[in-house]
Structure formats: C-alpha cells, structure tokens
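Standup, Tuesday
Yesterday: got the pipeline producing structure tokens again.
Today: sanity-check two examples.
Blockers: none.

Example 1:
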Amino acid sequence: TTEIYTLSLHDALPISETLRDLGRIMPVCAGVRRWGSAALDLAYVAAGRYDGYWERNLNSWDIAAGLLLVKEAGGLVGPMEPDESIVESGSIIAANEPVFDRFVKLIRNE
C-alpha cells in the first residue's frame, strides 16, 4: 500500500495504546511520520502529503484550524470513539476520502 499516516506521541497517552495503534497500522501502510505539531500534520492531510492522521488528548486550539483545513480540502474527520465530540475529547481521526473508512476501522480496532 502507499498510504502514509501520522500520529502523536502525546505525553498523556500511555505508550501501550500508541504501540497497539502502530501494530495495526504499520503492516498496512507505507510509513508513519510525526513532525511534532497537530496543526501541521492536519495541514499535511489537507494538502495531500499525508493520507491520514490520528491523535488523542489534544487541546481544542491544537486541532480547530487543522480540522477546518481538512474539511475544506475535501478530507474527512471523525472522533476516536463514535459518540464523542472531537473538540471536547481532543481525539481526532482525519484522512483523505478514499482511505478514511479503512483508516477509522484500523484506529478504532473494529
């Protein structure tokens, strides 16, 4: 596959959860990248440089502008859990439309 995803290594997130995510994602993608800024990573999804992005426990100011960029560029965004608010939880899944559904299933372990 050729998808490239990005993730966060957020201090508040247990490393075991991140490793479980990586265990599901890495076998089915071309690579995982992390530049250190949620806003930049979401902008890269919007620009088509990344196919997807996920992160947990962000502050609303970390994701608000990037979330809008992804949507305006035709990408899709969703919460980490189906019934939660992205802004309230600070947890986001974003991807381009062709891979979004598959990416969500991988991240949510569905």
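Example 2:
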Amino acid sequence: ARTVDLTLRTGVASLAGVVSGPDALGVVGGLGGMTVTATDGTTTRTASTATSGQVGAFVLADLPVPATYSVTVGGPGYATTTSEVTLTAGSDAARLDVSLGVATGVVQGT
C-alpha cells in the first residue's frame, strides 16, 4: 500500500470530462487535441483533450468557487459548443462530458 498526502485548497474546484464525436470514418469516440476553455469573466482556464491514454479526457483545475462558468469546446473540423456550468461553494469537482458534431459549411461565390 502507498500513502499519499493531499492538500485540499478551499474555494477552488476542478472540472473534468471527456470530449467525444465522430472521427473521419464516422466512428464515435474520444476526440484528442480539442480545446476546452472555461471562463467566469474574471478567471479563465484552458486545456487540450488527451491524445493518448483516455483520448478526449480533460481537466480544468483551480477554478474559484462559487461561480458560473461558460465552457467552450471545439477544434479543427468540429462545431464549437458552449455549455454553462455552475460550481457551488463547497464543491471540489464537477464533470462535463461533451459531444461535438462535425463542422459543415457552404462556400458560395463567383
């Protein structure tokens, strides 16, 4: 058995989750290399999703609480999505799993 000493900081929480969506073949799974940003207007934290191991996983640490964060997730070839997450006083962790769709567009002109 191993003992680990952890120091908990009051007034902060982490937000973790997995970003998933279809790959180039249409198979839905974790998406690596996506950008996840949380901001409450004062504090901003940004992370990239994992590209190996648990692909698509992210952790945004040290988010001051209580606060409501706007969490934006996106990356090349995928539509950006924004969610609102409220972290309450006394909470130390929250989870947000996000599913992204493929970005589509139309180019017109002469």
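Quick observation on example 2: The chain has no helices and nine strands. Residues 66 and 87 are 5 Å apart (CA to CA).
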